[in-house]
Amino acid sequence: MLKEYKGELLFLVIAMGAYLFMATLNISHNYSYFAVVFGIFGLIVTWKLYEKVDEQPDGNEKMREIAESIHDGAMIFLSREYKILGYFVAGVFILLMIVISSQKGFWIGLWTSVSYVVGASCSMLAGYFGMNAATSANVRTAQAACDGGKAKALNIAFNGGAIMGLSVASLGLVGVGGLFLLFGKSESISVITGFVMGTSSVALFARLGGGIYTKIAGVESDLVGKDEEEISEDDPRNPGVIADNVSDCVGDTADLGADIFESYCGSMIAAIAIGASMSAMKFEYMALPLIVAMVGLIASIIGIRTIDVLEGQDPSAALRNCTFVSAGAMLFVSFFVIKVMGLSSGVFIALAAGCFAGIAIGFVTEYYTAGAPVMKIVEANSTGGATVMITGLAVAMESCAIPVIIITIAIYLGSEFAGLYGVALAAVGMLATVGITMSVNAYGPIADNADGISEMARLGQETREITAGLDAAGNTTAAISKGFAIGSAALTALALFSAFTQAAKIESIDITQHKVVIGVFIGGVIPFFVAAFTMTPVGKGAMDMVNEIRRQFKESPDLMEGTSKPDSAKCIDISTQSALREIIFPGVAIVMPILVGLMLGAEALGAMLMGATLVGVLLAFFMSNGGGAWDNAKKYVEAGNLGGKGSDAYHAKVVGDTVGDPLKNTSGPAMNILIKLMSIVALVLAPIFI
Amino acid sequence: MLKEYKGELLFLVIAMGAYLFMATLNISHNYSYFAVVFGIFGLIVTWKLYEKVDEQPDGNEKMREIAESIHDGAMIFLSREYKILGYFVAGVFILLMIVISSQKGFWIGLWTSVSYVVGASCSMLAGYFGMNAATSANVRTAQAACDGGKAKALNIAFNGGAIMGLSVASLGLVGVGGLFLLFGKSESISVITGFVMGTSSVALFARLGGGIYTKIAGVESDLVGKDEEEISEDDPRNPGVIADNVSDCVGDTADLGADIFESYCGSMIAAIAIGASMSAMKFEYMALPLIVAMVGLIASIIGIRTIDVLEGQDPSAALRNCTFVSAGAMLFVSFFVIKVMGLSSGVFIALAAGCFAGIAIGFVTEYYTAGAPVMKIVEANSTGGATVMITGLAVAMESCAIPVIIITIAIYLGSEFAGLYGVALAAVGMLATVGITMSVNAYGPIADNADGISEMARLGQETREITAGLDAAGNTTAAISKGFAIGSAALTALALFSAFTQAAKIESIDITQHKVVIGVFIGGVIPFFVAAFTMTPVGKGAMDMVNEIRRQFKESPDLMEGTSKPDSAKCIDISTQSALREIIFPGVAIVMPILVGLMLGAEALGAMLMGATLVGVLLAFFMSNGGGAWDNAKKYVEAGNLGGKGSDAYHAKVVGDTVGDPLKNTSGPAMNILIKLMSIVALVLAPIFI
């Protein structure tokens, strides 16, 4: 099954040979130096995959037209976002250089800043690749469903997602590996932390801007469409519908990708930073996270190719099994790698604990967003919208418990068997197979879009059943991915926290001291505040959008008849404007660590990070699982139960879903970014707090 | 104005003289020993007040009949709750004796357990007094509004509340003062912690059972009544209406009272416990909280009497000004007391910081539940129920920030100027004038009931305007009280946490250690879990209730005509049953500290308390303020804005209010109890974790 990659494998072998040769000449060699090679290999595989997807037929003219609208909408959004992001990155570049230079000299300052820009660029590039692939694969999936059947459609959709997955994994290896190559042996290894800060900046903008855009565009057109005019979510007569399709791509491809990319690089760099302070076998400890990531990349490619074998299975099962194949392969090889490197088997336990924790959190998330708790919400319907809300809130709150307990178990095992380093390595273990987990994530919006296109282009009952089936599988995986993203963010944030305490030379952070208590409380407030802030613009923008859609329905009665075309561009513009206007403020999240660190000291800052991580993780699970559960409760009724569409139960469900949407797509994911970003800022600026 | 208390003042003077005489004989005297005397004095004043209220006319037969139904309902609930509570207290008595005896010997074990029972009894007694007074004052307030005018009605309602307020303050002084008298000078001062645990048990049962009862009874009859049959909340044709009136008394009198009583005694005992470990001036430090509480009692009585002067003012302003008078008087006298006792003025700063923090939190709460943010929710109406929910959630989350910052400022000032002791004393400062703050709290349900009675008994437009005005003031004060209750619970929990760290001889709790991190995370999960748990039975019980009310409306069509009487007893029974069935489980909250303490050690337990306090306080503000804001948004529309009752905006509001009700009345308040209870369990059982 790997034979189509003969050329790349050859490249890999030659490159390794060249490296080994160079290594014997002057650089003391280490397997970790192959990271860049593996990364480039991954990128070539990605390119091949893109070509393979792109050469598939893209359907009739109507389909191409819809697909082009979605593609253009996505690109408009990305380019506007990246433009603002560009100014932001430039600003931080200068600030970072000034601050770090003043503490650690000009060169370290410069390299940290450069490393910051490289991190931001890699993340943006991954998002760009992913979005291009997603908006190319969606229409091709719909066409494959039309003339190739379910297995073929699943294959294309998944391969489209895999482009994003492999881009993330490969660019992470190229970036982190490249910097490690340059600075791994020097005293200035700390410059590498700039890279994560770069990925963090992109993730912040992507998650907030994208999330807000997503929900203004999506939910509200949904609300107006479904609830008021009784027309379908994917009816092209609803002008918000293209914006809705764009938003699915933006939210679950570019945004989630930037989030996971940040965790992926963050966990590696935290492990490297902690490894750098080890007394014995320091270099092996520093190299291990990169080596595990290389193993993970190959394991992911194997997992992705497994879809060719499993494409006949039920989509959900196929996606899950691909993930298991990769995780198993990664752990199997890593076990021997750790043995060969001469590291203790405790290190492997930490790695495995993280890997299993990621999978377990996925299962729990699936239970709460698609299992028995959803039926509780469904049943609550009988007494109106308010009980749907209350029951959903209760489910959401309950759903925080087990995932957090799983995280504490991973922390316990990691620390017990490998100390501080163990926590960071657990995070690496959870994220090493990012190639496959991100592929599964990115599959979701492609399937969703394909379903939308097949409905809009009226592709016939049979095709629509196939795409609907793929979409349903995507909804489950989307919920699981959100859980996974939170879990990995939590472990990454804790790993970065540990790296920070070492970088700031903190002996202990004693919560019986009042400044530490104050730090914990300030930290706890921030997630609530950011959540409130990220929800509000949704409210504001949503109203503008609803009014626009209403205006269009009112002013052109032809719209309902389908004889005139809605002004989708106007809707996209409203959401873009209001999304981008509001994402400036969360910069506050960057200011708080600096403020607390300077005013109350490094210990209080550490306490703040802990408080923020705790509350941020809880709120993230709360909002993400609650949103998922409401969503599926609505889908259950939509499928014809309890009276189906249009019934009272359905209207009550729509309210729940509409409330849940900004929670799971905007505020919830913002928590992941928030907790990592604050830890990163603290870590990068650690020198000024000593 | 104090001349009517000539007899009591004489008693006070004679008792003080007798004490001084005894003191010169053998007991080394200290002003704190007067605590019991002051407490008894307070109880006598309370009794006088009760007589004064009780001798007011109680209206016509219809009014008496309604009042009797409410009184009986309240007493049925209290007696069932206290019965279950009795078994619980007996069980804990035995367990506590076994555990403490095994560690510290039989006598300490016995006295700790006795102290536990005394604490529980004092709290129950205060609740019983308060409920009796409230169900007596409600109908008399309505009658006074009818024939005496607004000022007179305000006076009676407030005096009815003052009975609860003074009962709390006086019984706290008698209980804590009595134990201090017995054990203050001995080595076994730790037995006094049993008292707080007793108050905690009552508060737990009261808040959970009462809260659940409240909302099943209230909200849902509300929902069915208002939303479905378009009849008023206080229409006697709605069979849930008596249960609703009972629930107001239960929720804001007995339950809030038990909560505040626990904070009041908890803050004093934490300060005493920390004082006991001081090296210099130990006895003065231990005595100060009691002396401040005595000053606070007298200041509260002065504040309560001030209503006679201010009764002509707008009710909200009058209530607020009475509170200011008491706080001012308490601080003024305490300043000199601290000087006379020879303690540093830093101690006074801590006390004042707590006092001001309590007032400031009240203002912030008022802003979020009655100010500009409510209008945001009102405006969100225009696009349906979902945006009301989203906007409300955003307001609720934002509203956590400032109160928590205020708490951190109080912690900072307290610790900076008086160390660990300062935090406990800040809590004492917030709670010393509990006599007046609790009076204002308890005024709310009396005014609400009076309004209900005047509507049910058809007392005429003019009377109903007066009672509606009193009720509106009560709604504002209720929101403020909830904020105050959370703030005081937070400070008390932190004070108890400090006392625990001393009792468990903990040197430091270092959050860079993994067991401590795990403790923090487990602690953070508990409030979410308990919140989920306390919401769910509301869902279940609410549905039974709704179905019952629907059944009654369906089976007796006369009900809508008002010609047949609804079966209120059946509704009361449903809510009582389901409330009491569910309150057994939160005992889990007692088990967790023991489990974590034994398995992960005392440091991890301390970390758990910190995590739970942080998350518990945030969730409490979130739920309480959110509920309050939705409530007032509904009231705003109800008052005739945006189309008034029956409009689309109104229906959207009702959804928000219905969701907010269990949040602000059940789950939110449960947080206060939870965080204090866990700290108390840890403190009492500290010996077994060393």
Distance between the termini of chain A: 54 Å
Portion of residues in helices of chain A?
Answer: over 70%
Low-pLDDT windows of residues of chain A: none
The secondary structure category of chain A is mainly alpha
How many alpha or pi helices of chain A? 22
> Over all CA atoms, what is the radius of gyration of chain A?
24 Å
Count the beta strands of chain A: 0
Give the oligomeric state of the chains in this entry, treating copies of one chain as homo and distinct chains as hetero: homodimer
Biggest beta-sheet profile of chain A: none
Strand and helix order of chain A: HHHHHHHHHHHHHHHHHHHHHH
- Most residues in contact: chain pair: A-B, 79 and 79 residues
Q: How big a fraction of the residues of chain A is strand?
A: under 5%
Shape label of chain A: globular
Estimate the mean pLDDT confidence of chain A.
85
Helix-strand blueprint:
The structure is a homodimer of 690-residue chains.
Chain A (H helix, E strand, L loop, with lengths): L5 H20 L9 H20 L6 H44 L1 H42 L2 H34 L9 H36 L12 H36 L5 H29 L4 H27 L3 H26 L1 H9 L4 H14 L2 H31 L2 H23 L4 H43 L10 H42 L2 H4 L6 H15 L5 H13 L1 H37 L9 H37 L1 H4 L1
Helix pairs in contact in A: 1-2, 2-5, 2-8, 3-4, 3-6, 3-7, 3-18, 4-5, 4-6, 4-7, 4-14, 4-15, 5-7, 5-8, 5-14, 6-7, 6-16, 6-18, 6-21, 7-8, 7-13, 7-14, 7-15, 7-21, 8-9, 8-13, 8-14, 9-10, 9-15, 10-11, 10-13, 10-15, 10-20, 11-12, 11-20, 12-20, 12-21, 13-15, 14-15, 15-20, ...
